[in-house]
Specification:
homodimer; alpha/beta; Metallo-beta-lactamase, Chain A; Rossmann fold; Ubiquitin-like (UB roll); eight-stranded mixed sheet; seven-stranded mixed sheet; 17 helices; 28 strands; 31% helix; 25% strand
């Protein structure tokens, strides 16, 4: 029996949706050679990560084993799979492999970090493979909501792993490659040890629908409009952009793209040939000269993002364009849970302008890019793996997917971020638990999610902030305590100014405090905090955050 | 022609879901006698109102016209209709009318403010009426998701207004009164000037379903469970509580209520006789002695509220009770948009415990308490008003409801909070716009939504906070500037401590600043801010909030 083992370790994307990052290792325990699949981002929210710009998986575990990493493979160009390569490339410094469209997008990202285009190597699809240490990796085309999405065939001396990436079973995806059951049966023929599989839609009980089911609905809808039409979807959903643009053209409308991410995606699609027949587009400046009934805007911001084109249009003029009573605004998208408030805000703003909003309530104008429950079962049946390892989902999705696999007679496991799973045997087995976490890009600085920085921000937001300043010379207070407040009411329950009540109470204390307390910074600070907190509690019924500055003259 | 007019003025609930408050006036312009329908609350969220406890409509307009108010009428006991009466009773000081169950809940609220039970007068249902100045008001029973919900018949010298309150058309609501089309046709017979009508579900295209359609599904589900069963729904959904408890009893389970709001509702229901046959319940202490397979918990927190029983159970032990692998947790509820993150967090925590979560994906375990689009049309047809005034909805709901009414040949109007509508003529007409807003209960203090307090909190959460202290004697700096940070990274891009770089840059400035600047507090503060901001921008790529304290010795 070999002492080598084959392990799987999710560092992001397992136990959450977003910031995908999966590691495979092969070799003697703790000496495995490693490959990394995807390095994505997640997006912050006000509840948990206010002020943060982007969220990355914590790659400390990988950085500490830099010399063991062979390569990074990117399955597709969605932000939650490729978004962090610019920020992390320097830390890992290994070659990145991706197919042409994905590589095109990736190079644009690296360029912003001054990394040249050669850092990403363009890989050809299966049956071509890339050798990386003990691994041989092939990109197997599969349908999703972005071109050139690929599953990975990962061959190791212990056997074959199939990593699905994000996928759906679409036989007519319009842009990009179709689901080809024969191809997938073919790659599975030699026997598959483990199917590491997308879990996003495991709770959706109906089979997924094809992108091609939308075209007629969208055409009909746009034909029915007589004023300006605006449509939003994910910038990266290039097939949808094409469906929308084609429908606009069929209705005699000029197409204008608004939003940098969307223009970038269409550019990449055209450059790499996957979108060769995208209709011609006009600039926002030229759009101003087109009669409203002959114009269609395709815009970013389907998730209600505050700075995106949708939000800007909903608030007024954007690039000279302005919506009016009778215009139509189509959300050809689904709201990701957690983004509802932002999306609803935009819909109401549009409603105030008299714009008719059409959304996807009925499913007529949007289909998901992920495999539904019956599609996952189909994938299990086609690949016939020894074991199914659910990935790409919150805990509830992974657990449900594992149950589904087990109900189908397959071994499975719920492995969240940090769970290293030994795939060498006949069933998945936890090898060890690795510390993982999240790294925040905050302005220009990377901080740890648990550094306490964001926690302090949340506390200031919930509790407000009191700042106390005292000056002493030896044990002699100089002047009276000075208080500033931020995020707190000016007047408290006693109807006096909160700052004055605080200053008065703190001054009372300073006057009667003993020399020992006044000479001891720690003790003095504790007392000042205690008094300010007590006063705040009685005046405003809150316990604010507190900063105390003690200045000593000498 | 009379100089008197009949006006409608929403102060809350029109242009949002929550904090309902509608005013009707009759009399000469600006001298109308007034009645108020409902004074509810809305709930804060981290995006827009961090740290706030409750949101009320701004009642300044009413307070300034206190002598013109005749009475307050409460349609039903949901928080968004009755929640603010305790906080606002003293400001208005007029009698409150409500039916017995609603009055019972209302008195409990007033009691917390030291207001005696007589402040609320128990009203009998239609055909009984209450005289209030020029108004005669009757409570007309209608089905909703809480007992004794009522529409109001508001008779004035100018004609009859029907204010639906929240409603659905349920002929078998299990608890509370059924929708009685004959009764509503009867009250409409004399002719109705205006139907002021719930708009919540105007986008739901299928007719609403009856509460009675759930019983069998829930019974079957609970029968299928062999370990502990926990179910959550709105505390006030007394009919659902009964359905759940009955199903639990039928499966041989003892019922334990967890959560103060839920116990309070059941108590009120039993006291007022609307819930006479609620199954006996046991205390959490006694529940500990019941075998898990014979226990059912009914718990608060269906919206993911952090302090409610659901969240507590998802995090571990609550009142000695703890969930385990194989237990079942039923969300017999719908997640209100904006609450998804909280609910999903709980579901994932439960998933980690191995608890099987059942939610309402399919509609089998929950029905809405509001009238759907076809039900609204039915209401329009039954009441046959001259005009429909949509209320209880965001702008998009009001607009869609107005369109629906107009498509049915009825006059309508979109009137958001602050729009005073003259109902005297044949069509609704805007009389004037009144300034409205939101009042936050923040700890023990009421603050205005636009006071800037919460804005400062949000900014601290997004940007962090830098505090700068300098001490001077005349134009002579004493010591060096002192900086504290909160919610910001300790180390910036130069790899030095952020505080030290700030202090160094500020000190440099103080050293070379002229006497004129150093003697001028405003100028000095501006300069210190400018420098600190510039340093922060280059060190951490952010623009933090800033507090500058200049202390002057004399």
């Amino acid at each position: 029996m070999s002492k080598n083992r084959l392990v799987y370790l999710p560092l992001g994307g397992a136990g959450e949706v977003g910031m995908n990052c999966y590691v495979y290792g092969y070799g003697p325990a703790d000496k495995e050679r490693l490959i990394v699949v995807d390095i994505g981002v997640a997006f912050p929210d006000m509840d948990g990560s206010p002020g943060v710009d982007l969220i990355f998986p914590d790659l400390d575990w990988l950085k500490a084993r830099k010399d063991r990493i062979e390569a990074v493979f990117i399955t597709h160009a969605h932000e939650d799979h490729i978004g962090a390569i610019g920020h992390t490339y320097a830390d890992l410094g290994v070659p990145i492999y991706a197919r042409a469209f994905t590589a095109n997008i990736g190079r644009r990202k690296l360029d912003e970090y001054g990394v040249g285009p050669k850092a990403i190597k363009t890989a050809s699809p299966w049956p071509k493979t890339v050798k990386a240490g003990p691994f041989k990796v092939g990109f197997v085309p599969i349908s999703h909501s972005i071109p050139e999405s690929s599953g990975l065939v990962i061959d190791t001396p212990t056997g074959r792993v199939v990593h699905t990436g994000d996928f759906k079973l679409d036989e007519q995806p319009l842009v990009g490659e179709a689901w080809d059951p024969d191809l997938w049966a073919d790659i599975s023929k030699p026997g598959v040890k483990a199917l590491v599989c997308d879990s996003t839609n495991v709770f959706s009980r109906e089979p997924g629908r094809s992108e091609s089911t939308l075209g007629d609905n969208i055409k009909e809808l746009i034909q029915s409009a007589d004023q300006m039409v605006v449509a939003t979807t994910f910038a990266s959903n290039v097939a949808r952009l094409k469906t929308l643009a084609d429908a606009g053209r069929a209705a005699g409308r000029s197409i204008c793209l608004l939003g940098r991410a969307m223009r970038r995606m269409v550019e990449a699609g055209v450059e790499t040939g996957v979108l060769a027949d995208f209709p011609p587009t006009i600039s926002p400046e030229d759009a101003l000269d087109v009669p409203r009934g002959n114009l269609m805007l395709l815009v970013t911001g389907s998730q209600g993002e505050r700075r995106a084109a949708s939000a800007q249009l909903a608030q007024g003029k954007y690039r000279g364009l302005k919506l009016k009573e009778g215009d139509m605004f189509l959300f050809s998208s689904k709201t990701i849970p957690g983004n509802e408030r932002g999306v609803i805000r935009i819909i109401n703003q549009l409603s105030e302008m008299g714009v008719d909003v059409v959304d996807d309530n009925s499913g007529a104008y949007h289909v998901s890019g992920h495999a539904n429950r019956p599609d996952l079962q189909t994938m299990h049946h086609v690949v016939k793996p020894q074991m199914v390892v659910p990935m790409h989902g919150e805990h509830r999705h992974l657990r449900e997917h594992a149950k589904l696999a087990e109900a189908g007679g397959l071994q499975s496991i719920v492995a969240v971020n940090g769970t290293m799973v030994d795939l060498s045997g006949n069933a998945p087995k936890v090898a060890e638990y690795v510390e993982t976490g999240r790294t925040y890009l905050d302005g220009s600085v990377q901080i740890g999610a648990l550094d306490g920085i964001v926690r302090d921000r949340i506390r200031m937001a919930l509790n407000g902030h009191i700042m106390v300043n005292v000056i002493l010379e030896g044990d002699e207070p100089i002047g009276e305590p000075w208080v500033e407040i931020k995020g707190l009411p000016e007047i408290g329950d006693s109807k006096a100014a909160l700052v004055e009540v605080l200053e008065e109470d703190l001054n009372q204390f300073m006057m009667r405090a003993g020399a020992k307390t006044l000479r001891d910074d720690d003790k003095l600070e504790d007392e000042l905090r205690r008094i300010a907190r007590k006063t705040a509690q009685s005046e405003i019924g809150k316990k604010p955050e507190m900063t105390v500055v003690i200045s000593r003259l000498n």
